[in-house]
Specification:
The complex is a heterodimer. By secondary structure, chain A is mainly α. Chain A is built from three helices and no strands. Classes of the chains: A mainly alpha, B mainly alpha. The interface between A and B is large, with 38 and 45 residues.
Chain lengths: 135, 249
């Protein structure tokens, strides 16, 4: 930007050089800020970029994933409940409680798979913009 | 010759090997697993042997499969997650080729057995758990306690989170197993209908064209499902590995 032509031998050279240096510093600053913003944004563009490009295939993949995540939550809850009953003799309360917890876990899995809420342990995957300013 | 749709999933020994009372026979399942690995190795070695800068068609298929897995892993788990790349690539290629090999007539579908898919899913989950503990120690358990939860609800929410985590290997394995099992049973049922209808005389022959058309269509669908299941398995593995690398960020 501040390219000094060789014929510019003006007595104001120190000031113009200082201005050039300030311009360079400002440009570097902006570049640094821009690359930091890009770095923050880049990981959020998740796996939708790669893989089969058609929206049909992505729809099937998501459908299979959501349905199996929900059922798996209930099955695991039921399994833990049945094992607790068998080990500790809590029947039938172990099975009942853990099937209900498994149902909640299945719903949690589906919501996470759809990206409606954040991933486990905190908001690493950014949730969608909340519609009314509340969570 | 069996005419029911379940007979195709039977495991029988081909070469009986008995080592000190442990049955290590070569069965049809293990034969096809070896065939799967051999096909993958042969394909990758032959297609990338020439290493031309402008790739041939085979080399470009190998490069595309590499780039797909690398891109998915990098975007899910970041650069630190790339140390799991050999594992994820091996999983993807194994599931894909095992699914596709099962589509040939008389070939055995390795992934249509829950024990095989469960072994693969447990390999993923054990990698996540052991890798997570090795990297972060007991801080890995922060994964199960979300932030911003009122104190009284923490036990309940943690129990739900643990169940949700434990449901991952179940969902991974059952998804692949159920899709392969159901696809192959459907295929066999329609193929059996062709034979049954054809046995009824000339009208049967004409009617048998319909289930034959369905068999062709379902075979095409099964090719799609083979790719899709490998894709979903890989994407989910990458996401679960991300939890091992960055738990509770």
């Amino acid at each position: 930007m501040s390219d000094r032509r060789p014929g510019d031998e003006t007595p104001k050279r120190p000031a113009s050089e200082a201005r050039g240096a300030a311009d360079d510093a400002a440009l570097r600053d902006r570049l640094g800020r821009l690359s930091r913003t890009l770095d923050e944004k880049a990981p959020v563009r998740g796996p939708e970029r790669v893989g089969p490009p058609t929206s049909d295939t992505k729809g099937w993949a998501q459908a299979m994933r959501l349905s199996s995540e929900f059922i798996a939550g209930i099955l695991v809850g039921g399994g833990i409940g049945w094992a607790a009953d068998w080990a500790f003799g809590w029947s039938p309360f172990g099975l009942i409680t853990f099937v209900m917890l498994g149902f909640a876990a299945g719903i949690l899995n589906v919501l996470r798979a759809m990206g409606e809420i954040s991933g486990p342990g905190g908001d690493r995957r950014s949730p969608p913009k909340d519609r009314d300013g509340k969570d | 010759m069996a005419n029911d749709p379940i007979h195709q999933f039977r495991i029988y020994p081909i070469v009986d090997i008995n080592v000190g009372g442990v049955d290590l026979s070569l069965t049809n399942a293990s034969l096809f697993m070896m065939l799967t690995v051999g096909t993958i190795a042969l394909f990758l070695m032959l297609s990338t042997g020439r290493r031309s800068v402008v790739p041939t068609r085979w080399q470009s298929i190998a490069e595309m499969s590499y780039e797909f897995v690398a891109g998915t892993l990098r975007s899910s788990a970041g650069t630190e997650g790339m140390k799991f790349f050999p594992f994820v690539f091996a999983l993807f290629m194994f599931v894909l080729v095992a699914n596709l090999l099962g589509l040939f007539p008389y070939f055995f579908t390795v992934t249509s057995h829950i024990i095989v898919t469960f072994a693969l899913a447990m390999a993923v989950i054990l990698t996540v758990v052991v890798g997570g503990f090795l990297r972060h120690g007991f801080g890995f358990l922060k994964l199960f306690v979300p932030q911003g939860v009122p104190g009284a609800l923490i036990p309940l929410v943690t129990a739900i989170e643990v169940i949700s985590f434990l449901s991952r290997p179940i969902s991974l394995s059952v998804r692949l197993f159920a899709n392969m099992l159901a696809g192959h049973i459907t295929l066999k049922v329609f193929a059996g209908l062709v034979v049954t209808l054809a046995g009824l005389g000339v009208g049967g022959w004409l009617g048998a064209v319909l289930p034959l058309g369905m068999t062709v269509a379902i075979t095409a669908l099964e090719v799609l499902v083979a790719f899709l299941q490998a894709y979903v398995f890989t994407v989910l593995t990458c996401m679960y590995l991300n939890d091992a690398v960055h738990p509770g960020h």
